[in-house]
Design brief:
alpha+beta, Immunoglobulin-like, 2 domains, 11 strands
């Protein structure tokens, strides 16, 4: 009985650790770019789903790398926006929550930026200061080459080579959007083709299965009609 209890306790503790690890790993501010090509416009989507040790988020301050010379913050109904200039460029964008975002609720902020034309291969960091009703967390740490992820990692993207025209998806945000529409159409077509192929396969399997069942039924019917020979 004691061994069974110890085993159950061990399994419970293991399950708790397995669940806690992903939750801890998700406790950061992540970024997803719509494009990474040098010289292209990219919409950076920053996402978070936590506060500061449980305290609701009241503001997010984004530091822009010096290589970024153009930024257009996306309007958000729950946030006010302020651009902080450093000379001729915008160095920071501050989003202040009209209603604080409670811990455990996910929200996203989008910034449209022009990636530098000569930055292919470079990693650009976008540190974020997360201010909360109580306390704050500065997501500004960078991992060393080959090192483990720091405790408060800064959101980063890696700039890739420019596309064939040398300007990513065009020389304007509208052009970038048009390029993504083409990509989306291509992806949707590929998805539709895959779904059609899958549906055809299922239909064939069901058809063959029905044919087999039909043949078996005919054989059984013939066997049932045969007169039994007298012993």
């Amino acid at each position: 009985m004691r061994n069974a209890l110890l085993t159950a306790a061990g399994l419970t503790a293991g399950a708790a650790l397995a669940l806690a690890a992903p939750l801890a790993a998700n406790a950061h501010v992540g970024v997803t770019p719509s494009d990474t090509a040098a010289g292209s416009y990219s919409v950076l989507t920053f996402a978070f789903s936590h506060g500061c040790d449980g305290s609701p988020t009241t503001a997010l301050t984004f530091d822009l790398p010096e290589e970024i010379e153009s930024v257009s913050p996306t309007l958000h109904p729950n946030w006010t926006i302020e651009k902080v200039a450093d000379g001729d460029r915008t160095a920071q964008v501050v989003y202040t929550a009209i209603t604080p975002v409670e811990d455990g609720y996910r929200d996203t902020i989008e910034l449209s930026v022009l990636l530098p034309e000569d930055a292919a291969g470079e990693t650009l960091a976008f540190p974020v200061l997360q201010s909360c009703a109580e306390g704050e967390t500065n997501w500004n740490q960078l991992a060393e080459d080959g090192g483990e992820e720091p405790e408060s990692p800064a959101p980063t993207i890696v700039v890739t080579e420019a596309s064939g025209d040398g300007h990513g998806h065009g020389a304007s945000a509208e052009g970038a959007g048009a390029g993504h529409d083409d990509d989306a159409t291509h992806d949707e077509a590929a998805s539709d083709a895959a779904e059609t192929s899958s549906a055809d396969l299922v239909a064939r399997i069901l058809g063959i299965g029905g044919l087999v069942v039909g043949v078996v039924g005919v054989v059984l019917a013939i066997a049932a009609r045969r007169p039994r020979s007298d012993a």
